[in-house]
User: Fold these one by one.
Assistant:
Number 1:
Amino acid sequence: EIEFFVNPNRISECPHYNKIKQTQLNLANDSKTGYKRAKVQELLKQGVFASKWHAYWVVSFYNWFISYGVDEKNLRIRPHTKDQLAHYAKACIDIEYRFPFGWKEVHGDADRGQFDLGQHQKFSKQKLEVYDEATKSKVLPYVAAEPSQGIERALLVFLFDAYTYDNSRGNVVLKLHPSLSPFKVAVFPLVKKDGLDKKAREVYAQLKGCFNAFYDESGSIGRRYARQDEIGTPYTVTIDYQTLEDGSVTIRDRDSTKQIRTSIEQLNNKLWSLVYQGAKFGK
């Protein structure tokens, strides 16, 4: 939780607003989907947002969920009605997620105005104004936004959104964003003989200096893939007989099950681009 203060005389001066004003959000309603689409600038005109700064902070967190893999159809914003609004707030917006048990709040953001500092100033008898260098004047700071959310609810959102049962595979696939996956890569020898296990250990040692990596040589290759699917590991690297011939390995993508080959020399760079730089698999 933070309180974002601005000069009350300059509350409309948000340098980031032009970048987000055309953004479309899901606005809560009573339709079958639970929302309608609306642009930020329209919502600001309607008074859904208290200010450009308020809009900016709500959009930032809405997009934050999406950037980590949450399907936007499961997100919406819900403005507090007058009877729900706290007495000190000019406006308050909840970001809600569509859980299997209904829409629930996962983030809140209120324009608190000058209530907090005003009350402190009133009862402490101490001046709490600050000097604004830009306007050369003293002002009582204004809370244009108070973004607030808990780690536990955010984690629950990511887990629910990622949880998938794949009928064709016959197992759960936890489609976590690679940045959120506990392990980024798992390394398997195709079989535990003929030097494949030794080579696999070498590849694992190479990778674990850069990634949270997992090594597994137990059971069939299919079972090992399934185990990693279920815990959300986005990529698996398999060392096979071709590896011994030309130094290449197979990388398998968790979500699509597609596979590509790359050299062991290029493996770290390839995985880094996939996990941390948003590279498309197979490109």
Number 2:
Amino acid sequence: MLRIFTDTAANVPPHLLEQYHITAMPLTYLLDGQPTELVGHDYYEAMRKGAEVKTSLVSPALIRDTMESALKDGDDVLYIAISGGISGTCWSAELMAEELRGEYPDRMIRVLNTCGASLGEGLVVLEAAKMLEKGCTADEIIRQAEENCGRMRQFFMVDDLKYLRRGGRISAAAQVAGSLLKIKPILQSDPEGHIIQHSKVRGQLKAMETLAELYKEYAVDGTRTVGIAHADCPDGALRLQAKLRDAGQTGEILSVCYEPVTGGHVGPGTVALFFFGEVWR
């Protein structure tokens, strides 16, 4: 039997993890240097008040132990991971997988770099889990997951430029100018899964219109599930959902609050859009 693993950066809601028997290994985070259980509004409100976030990848030892528990049960392993372009988790998982392949030569152990995060990773995970539930083979599931990674489009608006500044993605001068002009950067994933700038617009309303326009430009099937992730910005998420419907999206829209690790890097107020288009990477 194939077992599907991912990490908490995939932003898959707990009820779906349970429904599809997916194991999500935790990335960890500190708030002002201390462990915390804050999530959602309380977490992002702490960030707005100046709390500093530090994040860590999934422990390699935990990855190994979790995978090995499945292998000992006679199962094969597929770990669908956060982008190797923004986290070392994927590469740690591959190192652990290589060790385990030597110890369990009769078992399949596969680590898939999604080049995505949040629902850019999570939608790939969910499609794989649904295929497993339908009785598809491991080869079929892996082949489709690889294709879905190549189809995944990820665009997002950040509300406050200071979080990008902390991550070294913009200059201090650009942060000041952008804040004064209410500039909202639209970012995207590049072919290797790094975050790069797509464009800049003025104001949240224009940003949501731009995200919907990008969906209309790149989506190829309006019935496929779309993902929206927001960092304590439910009004922006609802506005984007309405504009997606106007743009011809008729399928399921899975909307979630950003989990703390990836959300801690983009900052409160961020709204992100994830959908499948043509294969582009």
Number 3:
Amino acid sequence: MKILVFGGTRFFGKKLVMRLLADGHDVTIATRGKTADDFGDSVRRVKIKREAREDLFCLAQEKWDVVYDNICFSPQDALYSIAAFRDKVGKYVYTSSLSVYRMRDRALVEADFDPFHYEIVTGSREDFDYGEGKRLAEAVFFQKANFPVVAVRFPIVLGEDDYTGRLEFHINHVQAGEEIGMPNEEAEMGFISSDEAADFLVWIGTKSDVVGPINAASNSVYRLSELMNLIEVATGKPAIVEVNTEDNDDSPFGVEKTYYLDNAKANEAGFEFRDLREWLPKLIDKKI
């Protein structure tokens, strides 16, 4: 297949490209050109600004079997893609997020956010918070695109190559004996590994005919108290968890209520997820 990947030089985007190449696909990566890659001559590279309409139209001078869009954060970005790739793409895979869901306190299913009837408001990334930008981008894709779209809703993605440092935040704070702010240690959260996220994107884009919104998360969840206990055991030090702390000590996982994805739709479609309780303890050990 001829495949275009927006953002394929780090984290799960890089792993996605590696898997696509291993499967024999013809891959082009479109990025800002700020992050080096080690793909050599195996990929074609195009330097773009994702928010620049003319850059997208240049890419759409040719047809693509699949487009992966890991760097769309606003309805304006989505509108530009729809205009540029009209009749030029077989399937458009949009990387969305758990953040589209406003509900809490239970497993969230795809129907809990309906992008097909969500009121569209236009604007750029700076005009919305992260969750609203993702909601509006989904709404634009599903209401206005004339090509098949799948929106992959990921939870927090973790891995050895995670540049955000969210898991390291907790490990470093425990090792340093510093407070960690968590409003509710009994809240449950789900995650997905960067390897599994890449595997899922390959599957949904090149091996599945599924379209529409779909949740993708590892099986099982952790209470935040259990997660902190894993770090305590791995570091040999107690975690100091408080409800109220300084802002710079607030946990990136600090949710007030349970917040995780139901992955039944993807399971029923044929994707087999790994178990969070198998891979997360190993990842914590590797990071210490």
Number 4:
Amino acid sequence: MAKTAYEKALEKQQRENQKIAVQEARRQYASTIVSGQPVVSGMRIMDAASEEVFAALLKLYDGNENRYIQGDNSVFPAPYRSSIPSEFEKLRMYGMISSMTFWLGGWEATLTPQGLSYFDDKEKAVAASTSAEAIPTKPTRKEFDVFISHANADKSDYVDELYLTLRKLGINIFYDSEVLSWGDNWKQVILNGTEKSEFAIIVISENFFGREWTERELDEFLKRQNVNGQKIVLPLLYNITFEQLKDKYPTLGEIQAIRTEGRSKEDIAILFAKELIKRYK
């Protein structure tokens, strides 16, 4: 049955609202990272990811008086190519670029004068710092914002797309498909990942039940949560009910879970970004 004009207009509005929500979540997340960076000798030092992306940008600058640069995403290190809008948003907040435009696979931006001299200015600022007290200390952030625990059988149907959606917000993710490489001791890499991640999204499905390593990951995160009393485990129910969850994992009965049914991956990414922003403020 064909959709009515009203239904089409409603769907268009919903897509537009979701797009605005994603953009706002990206801005809030970027702002949280930027404001959390130390100020040394009056200069805010960028986070490591932003410095790596900005160094790649500077290599493209040809000295033109308008400080204009453009390129495609291949100029950036592979881990950042799926989250370039988020990385550019941080650079804008740091004052490194003054404008930015994106198109499919490409971008253009305008460098600021302070951007051109950032790395030299940073070196001077650090040298001028006379003591460790001159650098405000911030709570140490873990290497990964989130660990996605899941059953391999759910990768292609759901989890791969969830990972890509989170990456678009600039979120640092431990995802086995991206982290593990040929010859790794995969068990040790995964256990290290549980220690290096701030949160864990546990994608729980019937495929998750009874698997040795998915349940080992869940156990590791629950132990950490019980020790420090801080929220870590974020259960995400994929094609199962709350009753099934409580029946299989009674320990999760008191932890608020959400279901994928009725929620887009963008909705879930925004919810997670809000949790991350609250943690890092």
